[in-house]
Q: What sequence folds into this?
């Protein structure tokens, strides 16, 4: 059974109490507090689980990968007539006032928990818990570096959506500070990532225990430094009109393109990460285990695919997964705590009111823009590896019945969609059978991890920063395409479009490249719940690619926070 590592530590939920000095002079032996906690490796591991827990957001639009997909030019709003929130996000209309509230609130929960670890680890000594001082130091450095990385991650997650945000960098810091500028925010992100890189040990990925899979490490921090550099320099150049090729640091100074490229080169040469042999083997539809009467996608079996799984370099699925570097780890759902740890992207982006095998039903959000399918070279295996064509016997969708939802185009994404098998318990979710679930509710079937960073992105970021073709050509060759041998930004853009379709990156690429105003110049013929219709959206450049600050936070700030332009 899949083990999910992000759990709420009971220690984090303990009510901290204290007594006045003039009362009983006794020490609380039973309850944990900021004074007596964080003193053992167990304490630190529990506290770190609380930090990672902030990767999960209850509000569906606060899931960055779902929201970013709807905002991009690859997906339409879709859903049924009552799914108005998805359509508003997709159409750049004013959403409900707290559409993104959980993204803001939960990120600050994670930042606070990371701040506590950072402060407590400064004087921590774990030598009594390990055989050697070297082991104790390695544990401390890894935990401290993870805390710095996760603080950077949460600020970066917010900055991509909201722009500059309030910087709260200590446990006792005031909560009513104004928003920092975009430059100040990214300077802090860069400094935290730099500290994480310099602090965490450089253990190659194959030597990291699979039990640590899902945790950040030095290589993940290096990869995110590349992503932060490209987003900041692109955003400032193309949205703010302030051309720059440097990433500022909070302590002063900056990182140049060559310095960031060096981080990526270290990751490429020494991390132990590598591309999967076949792009399509990264996605669960390539799972072809036919035991116990399971039904698989005939196309995947005919293509000789073999899923690499999502448990790191564990050889459970053939050679293991060396490409995924950082992911949100999901488990199967349980209605006692809702869908919190269940990946809702496959549910919301699944086929509306169609239960096929191996593709299960969902809410029908995010129909794929047919222009993406039509403009994609048929010789690129990533095309059929990313887009699910409806009404296709080869794809197992020949029995699909349309006119169930809005914005229907005949295409859905294949990377993150509900998968099901026909086994001993009848038709049920793929992960229901794989992990021995007991609840057979289709809304709780998706235990697929969402990949936030994979090695292919490191290669493409390196090409973009250095303006050289090597990384880009390596990604192309993995797809069976000829190397280009030369670099241009336009070819790089195409490779990122085809390599990372539906992975939540396209929208941010459009924003940083300044391509939003041209990306949505089209009108499509669609079906809206059985009726012919046309679809188009109008991007509003005055928003500069940012979403609104949650109105609840604006009101609570008593005028300290100013709403983003255009909202």
A:
């Amino acid at each position: 059974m899949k083990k999910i590592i992000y759990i709420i530590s009971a220690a984090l939920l303990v009510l901290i109490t204290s007594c006045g000095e003039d009362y009983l002079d006794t020490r609380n032996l039973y309850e944990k507090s900021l004074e007596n906690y964080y003193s053992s490796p167990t304490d630190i591991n529990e506290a770190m689980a609380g930090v990672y827990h902030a990767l999960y957001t209850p509000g569906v639009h606060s899931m960055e990968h779902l929201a970013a997909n709807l905002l991009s030019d690859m997906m339409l709003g879709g859903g049924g007539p009552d799914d108005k929130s998805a359509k508003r996000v997709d159409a750049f209309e004013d959403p409900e006032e707290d559409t993104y509230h959980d993204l803001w609130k939960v990120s600050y929960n994670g930042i606070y928990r990371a701040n506590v670890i950072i402060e407590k680890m400064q004087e921590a000594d774990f030598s009594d818990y390990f055989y050697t001082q070297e082991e104790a130091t390695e544990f401390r450095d890894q935990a401290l570096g993870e805390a710095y990385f996760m603080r950077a991650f949460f600020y970066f997650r917010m900055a991509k959506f909201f722009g500059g945000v309030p910087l709260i960098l200590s446990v006792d810091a005031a909560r009513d500070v104004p928003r920092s500028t975009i430059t100040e925010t990214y300077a802090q992100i860069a400094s935290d990532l730099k500290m994480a890189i310099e602090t965490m040990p450089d253990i190659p990925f194959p030597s990291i225990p699979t039990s640590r899979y899902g945790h950040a490490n030095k290589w993940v921090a290096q990869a995110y430094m590349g992503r932060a550099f490209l987003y900041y320099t692109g955003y400032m150049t193309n949205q703010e009109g302030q051309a720059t090729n440097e990433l500022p640091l909070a302590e002063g100074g900056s990182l140049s393109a060559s310095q960031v490229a060096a981080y990526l080169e270290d990751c490429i040469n020494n991390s132990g990460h590598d591309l999967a042999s076949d792009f399509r083997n990264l996605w669960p539809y390539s799972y072809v285990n036919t035991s116990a009467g399971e039904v698989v996608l005939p196309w995947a079996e005919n293509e000789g695919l073999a899923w690499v799984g999502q448990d790191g370099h564990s050889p459970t699925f053939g050679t293991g997964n060396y490409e995924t570097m950082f992911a949100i780890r999901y488990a199967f759902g349980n209605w006692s705590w809702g869908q919190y740890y269940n990946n809702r992207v496959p549910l919301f982006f699944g086929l509306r009111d169609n239960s096929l095998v191996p593709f299960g039903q969902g809410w029908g959000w995010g129909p794929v823009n047919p222009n993406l399918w039509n403009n994609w070279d048929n010789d690129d295996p990533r095309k059929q590896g990313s887009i699910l064509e409806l009404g296709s016997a080869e794809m197992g969708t020949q029995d699909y019945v349309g006119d169930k939802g809005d914005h229907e185009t005949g295409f859905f994404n294949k990377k993150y969609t509900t998968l099901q098998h026909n086994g001993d318990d009848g038709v049920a979710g793929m992960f229901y059978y794989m992990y021995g679930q007991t609840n057979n509710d289709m809304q709780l079937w998706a235990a697929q991890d969402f990949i936030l960073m994979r090695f292919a992105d490191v290669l493409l970021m390196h090409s973009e920063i250095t303006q050289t073709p090597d990384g880009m050509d390596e990604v192309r060759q993995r797809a069976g395409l000829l190397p280009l041998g030369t670099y241009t930004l336009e070819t790089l853009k195409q490779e990122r479009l085809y390599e990372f379709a539906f992975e939540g990156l396209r929208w941010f690429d459009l924003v940083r490249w300044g391509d939003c105003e041209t990306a949505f110049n089209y009108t499509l013929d669609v079906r809206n719940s059985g009726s012919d219709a046309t679809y188009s959206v109008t991007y509003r450049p005055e928003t500069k690619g940012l979403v609104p600050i949650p109105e609840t936070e604006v009101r609570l700030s008593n005028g300290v926070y100013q709403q983003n332009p255009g909202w």
